[in-house]
Design a protein that fits this description.
The protein is mainly beta and about 260 residues long. It contains four helices and 13 strands. A hairpin with a 2-residue loop joins strand 5 (about 80-90) and strand 6.
Length: about 260
Amino acid sequence: MTNQPFFTRDADAFIPTAAANGPWDPNSLHGRVIVGLLAFAIEQRHGSDDFVPARLTVDMFRLPSFAPIEVRSRVIRDGLRIKVVEAEFFSGGTSMARASCQLLRKTENPEGKVWSPPNWDVPLPADILAPTDPRLGMNGKWTTRPIVGAMGDVGPRRLWMSEVRDLVEGVPLTPFVRVAVAADFASPWANAGDHGLGYINSDVTLYLHRLPVKEWIGFEAVNHHASDGIAIGECWLYDQQGPIGTSTVAALAQRKPMAKPPPP
C-alpha cells in the first residue's frame, strides 16, 4: 500500500506515525492500531499455518502517546491442539494494553448438522458506490461501503470495511492482522447513538472460526446494552464468502461525548 503506514520500525521498537492517532485525543493512539500491533506480534512470533487464532482479547487500560512502542510476548501453553499466548503493549516504557490469544489446531468438523444463523444477504463491495465524504473512515484511516444504516442510527447497521494502509511499514497485512485492526470498529458501530458516540471501549474480543479471504470485512451491529455508564456492544463479522466470527467490546461512558460522527 502507498499510504503512510500506522507504524515504522526502529530496531525492535515500533514508531507510531501521524496516521495512528485516535478520535478521543489527537496526541494518543487509536484503539485499532493497539489491537492490530498486538495481533501482529503474536502472529509473527507464535503463529502457524496449522493453527487458527480463534480468540484474541485485548485489554486497553491507558491511552498510549506517540512514544516508541515495545511489545513483549510469552507462551502460556504450547500444546498439540491448543496454544495460548500473552502479549503486552508498552508505550514509552509504560504498560498500556495487554492481549491474550488462543490458537486452535485445524482438524475436521464432526459429523452431523448444527443450527447456525443464516448468512447475510447483502451486495458485494464492488457493487456499492464508494462514499464521497472525505471524513468517512476517519479521514482516510480506512475505507467503507455502507450497506444499511449509518453511524448513530437507531436501527440496523451493516457495512463493508477495507484497510488502505499497512499496519507496519513494509509488511503486507495478513488476514489475521487485517481483521484484528478492523475489530475495534465494533465499539462505535454498535455503541453510537442519536446523540453521538458517548462510550470509549476498554477492550476488544475477536472470535474467529476461520480467517477472512480478500480485503473486505463486513460488520453487522447485533447487540448493545448499557447500565450505569457501562456498555457492551457486538458485531457479527463477514467476508465475501460468509460469516467469519464476532467482535465484542466493553465500554465506559465518557463525560463529554463525541459530537455526532458522520456516517461511515
